[in-house]
Design a protein that fits this description.
heterodimer; A: 217 residues; alpha/beta; B: 2 strands
Chain lengths: 217, 193
């Protein structure tokens, strides 16, 4: 062994021991890296869009676990295919395979964001939520809509959305007034906003589902 | 600016594609310079007559592990964006044993066979041919072994995840094991001279 070998070995030993000391001193057990969680949220790696979820369900992704956090009645009325219903409290105790890719959704985004944090704190790595909950699914997958004066990009997105919609038995709508396609609809920022607001702020998912079903008939 | 550059958008997909040949060239260059283009040298690892493979591989492993850990700690690399392959215990154990047997018979692994072929060695070309034949056979027979291929999944886990210990503790243990291994390898080398 040359001098260089000795020097490199000493550097490796120092860095290795410091690595152990740094992490053990940080809590003695696997501490949750809050900075990492924050960076995941900042980089928007905490949520999945409804079309992305639709594609994963369509290709029968075996690692996917979809969790519905709404009430049993709302779940029975309509839920995302393959989803299982549970409460936030039960979710705190539920166990999943280590490799499971978990997607949680509720009526809006609040409960599912809380569930995301809960599951990430429990050590599950691949967890996402639907930002606008079931409304986003209804709006972007079950009933995608294209404004009468749509741009070429919107038309291309709509063509993709039509495939999802037909697969899940939805009803794509084209040539709707621009007012029915809120700003941010195609960028998934406010995809379900119009559905959530149609019956007033207290509108329930069941009302939204009923409205869609009436239109479908 | 933090890595991985392809994932964080610093270089984008085209940049990643263009940088791949340079990284591949450097990989091959250092393998060749480390003497790993020689089948005799590689087979010597199995008979404990030449521990170059152990020393090269563990040096690379140690450098990458310490670099990744500390770059992540310093905020220069987001480890959550680094691809972590999924673990399938039984198929990977059988695959590993097969790989090892092939390694022993041929004296080369996939990377070093390319290095050997590039250096003009015919055995390297033969191993590359065998490797592609294996890839074709595997794909043709995939339906037969798909059940086994997907069995005993553990997900994208690390040893520290499984042990429930901090990542840094795992880094410290692997560093200690590697350094102890280097000392033992040096003693074996000295004893054989």
């Amino acid at each position: 062994m040359t001098r260089i070998h000795h020097a490199l070995a000493i550097i490796a030993a120092v860095l290795g021991l410091a690595a152990g000391a740094a992490d053990v001193a940080a809590g003695g057990r696997r501490a949750v890296d809050v900075t990492q969680l924050a960076s995941e949220i900042e980089a928007e790696r905490d949520h999945v869009t409804a079309p992305e979820l639709a594609e994963r369900i369509m290709r029968q992704d075996s690692s996917l676990r979809v969790i519905d956090l709404r009430s049993r009645a709302e779940y029975d009325a309509l839920h995302i295919p393959t989803a299982t219903v549970t409460t936030l409290e039960d979710l705190a105790r539920a166990t999943f395979e280590a490799h499971a890719s978990i997607v949680v959704y509720s009526e809006g985004g609040t409960h599912s964001a809380q569930a995301w944090m809960l599951l990430r704190l429990r050590g599950y790595r691949d967890v996402r939520f639907l930002r606008e909950g079931i409304y986003e699914w209804l709006s972007r997958v079950m009933e995608p809509r294209l404004a009468i004066d749509a741009t070429a990009t919107e038309r291309a997105e709509f063509a993709r959305a039509e495939v999802h919609s037909r697969f899940f038995g939805g009803l794509p709508r084209s040539s709707v007034p621009r007012a029915e396609v809120p700003t941010g609809y195609w960028t998934n920022e406010r995809a379900g906003a119009h559905l959530a607001m149609q019956g007033g702020p207290a509108a329930s998912t069941q009302q939204a589902v009923a409205r869609i079903r009436r239109r479908g008939c | 600016m933090s890595g991985p550059f392809a994932e964080t958008g610093v270089i984008g997909p085209l940049g990643a594609l263009l940088s791949a040949p340079f990284i591949g060239f450097a990989f091959g260059w250092f393998l060749e310079r480390g003497g790993l283009g020689s089948a005799r040298k590689l087979a010597g690892q199995f008979y404990l007559t030449d521990l170059a493979v152990f020393k090269v591989m563990f040096s690379a492993l140690l450098t990458a592990m310490l670099g990744a850990f500390w770059l992540d700690k310093l905020g220069l690399l987001d480890l959550s964006l680094v691809y972590l392959p999924e673990t399938f215990v039984l198929p990977q154990a059988v695959g590993g044993a097969l790989f090892g047997a092939g390694f022993l018979v041929a004296g080369l692994c996939p990377g070093t066979s390319c290095v050997a072929a590039a250096a003009g060695r015919l055995d390297g070309v033969g191993v590359i041919g065998g490797m592609f034949a294996g890839v074709v056979l595997f794909n043709l027979g995939f339906d037969w072994i798909a059940g086994f291929y997907n069995s005993t999944p553990l997900g994208a886990v690390t040893l520290t995840d499984l042990a429930g210990v901090p990542r840094g503790a795992g880094v410290a243990v692997v560093t200690a094991l590697a350094l102890a291994g280097f000392v033992v390898a040096a003693r074996i080398d000295r004893a054989r001279r």
